[in-house]
């Protein structure tokens, strides 16, 4: 029988536990920025691991940057980084991951700023990191996972899309499109990711198929954005579907990802 979590941590010095950064991109999130930072920091403070919260303000035109600067004075684990202009979700994640690498952190844990990903699940990711998985994906579609408050048509599209991606990737991942995920920093830095938008989630899995050896899953409940927050920028258009689908298709036919040629 495994020892209780607290006892395991008590017996294992923090320097032997995997360290990680939670990386969160924000764009015009003044309505929920403080609640997000406070809740994530509260979870990180419960853990014995060396951790950081890296928030990338991706060119916000509201008061998001001011809020993050104020919070940094009272939340020692918070590290805000700002882009001068809006460069996109993928670019913000790349900036945060690069900083995590500079900080010497073992893992990068990506999550959204709107609290549709519950910060209370962070310790479950930390436990999976302790087990040594290289890629750890949150899953809505396995035992213990669920979706709450999300429109039925979006759930249906997600389920169908994930079934197709799973079939094509042939990876032990049941929720390929979930953006709540952790990756070993060293592995992530070997990926030459080109996407600046949400399809970077699938591009990561495409690279992982050829670089990663172990995968873990964390069942979670995904919720919808609250009424007071900025509406999601995700759009259901044919071009968007193709931007996601092309990565599992390339993996299916055995086309390996390539690094960009240096000028």
Structure summarized in a few sentences:
The chain has 263 residues and is α/β, with parallel strands linked by helices. The protein is 38% helix and 17% strand.
How much helix, percentage-wise, in residues?
25-40%
Give me the count of strands: 9
| Low-confidence residue ranges | 1-7
Number of helices: 9
Query: Mean of residue pLDDT?
Result: 90
**In the CATH classification, which architecture applies?**
Alpha-Beta Complex
Order of strands across the biggest sheet?
A: 3-2-1-4-7-5-8
Let me know the CATH homologous superfamily.
Answer: Spore Coat Polysaccharide Biosynthesis Protein SpsA, Chain A
The amount of beta strand, in percent, is: 15-25%
The largest pleated sheet is described as: 7 strands, mixed
Termini gap = 56 Å
Task: Give the domain tally.
Answer: 1
Q: Which of globular, elongated, flat, extended, rod-shaped describes the shape? A: globular
The CATH class, by name, is Alpha Beta
CATH fold topology: Spore Coat Polysaccharide Biosynthesis Protein SpsA, Chain A
In words, what does this structure look like?
- This protein is of the alpha/beta class and 263 residues long.
- It has a single domain, classed as Spore Coat Polysaccharide Biosynthesis Protein SpsA, Chain A, CATH 3.90.550.
- 38% of the residues lie in helices and 17% in strands.
- It is built from 9 helices and 9 strands.
- It has helices at residues 5-11, 33-45, 64-72, 89-102, 122-130, 152-169, 185-188, 200-211, 238-252; strands at residues 20-26, 51-58, 78-83, 107-110, 135-139, 146-148, 181-184, 215-219, 221-223.
- The strands form 2 sheets. The protein has a 7-stranded mixed sheet, with helices on both faces.
- α6 (152-169) runs parallel beside α9 (238-252) and α8 packs parallel to α9.
- The radius of gyration is 18 Å and the shape is globular.
- Mean pLDDT is 90; it is low at 1-7.
